[in-house]
Amino acid sequence: MAKAKKPVKEEPFENQLWKAADKLRKNIDAAEYKHIVLGLIFLKYISDAFEELRSKLLAGEGEYEGADPEDKDEYKAENVFFVPEIARWSHLQNNAKLPTIGKTVDEAMDAIERDNPSLKNVLPKVYARGNLDPTNLGGLIDLIGNIAFGDAKSRSADILGHVFEYFLGEFALAEGKKGGQFYTPRSVVELLVEMLQPYKGRVFDPCCGSGGMFVQSEKFVEEHQGRVNDISIYGQESNQTTWRLAKMNLAIRGIDSSQVKWNNEGSFLNDAHKDLKADFVIANPPFNDSDWSGDLLRQDGRWKYGTPPTGNANYAWIQHFLYHLNPKGIAGFVLAKGSLTSKTSGEGNIRKELIEAGLVDCIVNLPAKLFLNTQIPACLWFMSRDKTNGGFRDRKGEILFIDARNEGHLINRRSKVLSEEDIQKIADTYHKWREVDGEYENIKGFCNSASLDRVRELDYVLTPGRYVGLPDEEDDFDFNERFTTLKDEFEEQLKEEERLNALILENLNKVKLV
Fold this sequence. Notes:
The protein is an alpha/beta fold. The protein is about 45% helix and about 10% strand. It is built from 17 helices and 11 strands. The protein has helices at about 15-25, 30-60, 70-75, 90-95, 100-115, 135-145, 155-175, 185-195, 210-225, 240-250, 265-270, 315-325, 345-355, 420-435, 450-455, 465-470, 480-510, and strands at about 200-205, 230-235, 260, 280-285, 325-335, 360-365, 380-385, 400-405, 410, 415, 445-450. A 9-stranded mixed sheet has the order 3-2-1-4-5-7-6-8-11. Strands 9-10 form a two-stranded antiparallel ribbon. Helix 2 (about 30-60) packs antiparallel against helix 7 (about 155-175) and helix 8 runs parallel beside helix 14. The longest helix has about 30 residues, at about 480-510. The protein starts with 12 loop residues before the first helix and ends with a helix. Residues about 150-155 and about 475-480 have low confidence and may be disordered.
C-alpha cells in the first residue's frame, strides 16, 4: 500500500513575494533596490486608499452626498493622501510594459509630493535610472499590483504594511552590516515594546531609523485593545535616506509622522525636540559611536550625571534619553554590552551616579547574533524616573537582572531571532517583578532582583551574569540537538564558501590580460 504523501506546507505569501521581487533585482545593489521596491509598495498603498474613498465620494451617498471626488480637502479630512491621475496605480499598470515606465513612475512620485506637502522630499525618484531595466520594473509593478486582493482600505493597509515591514527586514539581511544601520531586528523591537507597554502618552525615539519602534508601539496598543489615538510619536533621524523610509513606513500604517524630524547634525548637536518630556523613550542608538561631536558639547546641560567621553557616545545617549523623560517616564533602549562594565574616561563614575540616583530599573543580557550590523554583544537598559510608584510597586533600592543569552534560535548561520515565547518569558519576568501583586521569583541562571548594596559590592558593574549565578540544573544538555545545530551551521558555511568561490572564479574569468 502506497504511503500517504505528507501535505506540502505552503510558503508564506510575503516570502513568495520577496523571492519574486529579488529575482527581478538582477545586478542592482540591495541598498539601492530597497528604495525601488518599497517606494512602489507605498505608492500602491496610497493609491488603494485613495481609490476606495474616491468611489464613496463618486457614489455621493449618506455623509458623502454632494462631495467633490476631486477636492483634495475631502481626502485630507479622512487622513487619506490625494493621488493625482498620473500617479494612480491603474495608470502605472497600464503603462508597465512601455520602455518609458521608469520616467512615468518618477513623474508619479513628483506629482504626489506636489499635492501632499507632508511627503515633500520623502518619495524616491530613482526609476528612470539606466541600471533599472524597464521590463523588470514592469514585472515588479505587476507583482505588487497583486498584493492586496479586495479594495478595503483596512485590509490593504494591513497587508501592504506587513509586506513593507517584511521587506525592510529582508533588505536589511541582504545588505548585512549596512542594513543594520536603518533596521532594528523585529524581535528586539517587540521585546522592548512588550516590556515597556506604551499604552498611552508620548513615545520618543531620537535615533529612529526606519521607524520600527513606532510601528510596533502602535501594534502593541491595537493588540491589547487600547486606543491608538492615545499615543503620539516623536522622532529624529540624521540619515535622510533612512528618514524617508521611516516616513513611508509610518504613512503606510496611517501613523502621524509630522513630529518625526530630520537634520544631518543629529540629536546631540541639533535636538529637534528640545522641550519634549516623553512618557516613553524607546531606542537603538549606534553602538559605541566615536563620532558624535562630544568635543563640542563638554558643558551641555544634559550631562547631569557626568560628562561623557568624546570617544564613545553610550553615556551621552543614556543622559539624552533621561533628559527627555517626564517625572514618571520610562526608557528602554539597546546598548553595547560594554556599557555595563566600562570604566574608561569616567564612564564608571557616570554609571555609579545613575545607579545611586535610583534610575536603573532592569538590565537584560541579549543573545549573540541578533543584530545584522555588528557582532558586538548587546544588552537592554530600562530606566525609570520614578521607581516609587507610577502605577507599580516601590522598587527603590532594587535592580532586576535578566540573563537571556540562551534564548532565541538561529534562522541562518549569522542571524538569531527571539521567538514569541522567548519575548513573553523575558517580558513577563519584568512585569511580575515590578507589579504590586506580581508573583516574581529569582531563577538561578536567568533572573535575580539584586539590592543596591549588592551592586555596590560588585563595584557598580551591571552584567546580569554576575548576579543570576549558574542554573541549578546543568544536566539537561541535549547532545543530539546540539550536534544537529552545529552540523546545520557547518553545512551552511560550506555552501556559502562554495558560492563565494564560484563568484571569485567568475570575476577572475572576466579579467582580460593584455
